[in-house]
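Write out the 3D structure for:
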Amino acid sequence: MKLGFERPVLFERQAVGGEYGAGWDSVGAGQLVTTFFPEDGSSPRIVDGRKLKDEKSVVVVYDNPLDNVKDLAHIFFERCLKADVVPYVVTKKTVFKWQEGFWLAMKQVFDEHYHDEFLKAGLLDGCGGNLQHLISDAATMQIIRWTGGGFGMACHNYDGDMLTDEVAQMHRSPGFMTSNLVGRRADGVTIKEFEASHGTVADLWEDHLQGKETSLNPLGMVEALIGAMQHAAALEPSNQEEVNRFTTDLRKHIHAAMVAGKGTRDLCGPSGLTTEAFVDEITQRINQHVQAAEAGEVVTKAAKSLQRNFTVDTEAIQQLFQEYDKDQNGAIDMQEFTELLVDLDIAPKEKITEKASKDTEAVASS
């Protein structure tokens, strides 16, 4: 089953300040002055002053904190390196001049700590060898165009909200998204909070309370729970191995069910399962896996040919077979099969150490 992006897409959203922490009031015509009073007791400074002419207007005041941007930058660039994706910083600083500081702080961290690593990994080959800035308008278009994935974006609060919604729709459902909030305690310990992204279940919860049938995609919520459990286990590692095994198996069973056409209706259409039926499906898969493991049975993967919407171009397969059946005897021998795998670039390759050992032996024998 092919969804929106072929490779990972990462987002780092500065989840403080901006419109979400704004103060506002409804006002009329008059004079508006915004004044800053420094904590050190120095003289006040007028930030903005303007005359309001409309009889009805709304005044909004907010700030964009910058102290945490460098921490955010380290987390973002480390994630991008680990996932092998190209980093971009998104703002609308050409119009919103106050966003320049976010870009400059991100770039400083990148240039001082990560530029050489990204360059070595080849992740800057397509962007001039440097960290790139994207105007938020362009980012909305690139998300649709870059269906191959393989990129990460770091941005302010509101841009992060909107752009991650767009990414979710590229995957057909906001239910595929999870949101992880990261901060630091005063003693430097990393704090993480995990949640399903954007309150996606509010309307379905109301339907459930009214006794209506629902079909909730739980993947974002489950990923949040998995992240929380794994982070808790890392902080208190006494049962970390057991927690990681359980959460990894849970993720695997949910993915397998969705790939097999046993997902919720946002993914599978009218034939998709209800919320309760999907929970029952995953429960059954987990129980079967546990019972098989206890009985010492080997748990095998379902054949891909049984997957939903699985189709094969038999004519193309026949043509490929005839191309590599060099002697036209209706069979492909080992040499022909090896040539086929090499041409398709899926032939298993020797490890460098094994090849070097064989080359040494060959030289010694000659």
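DSSP finds 13 helices and ten strands in the chain.
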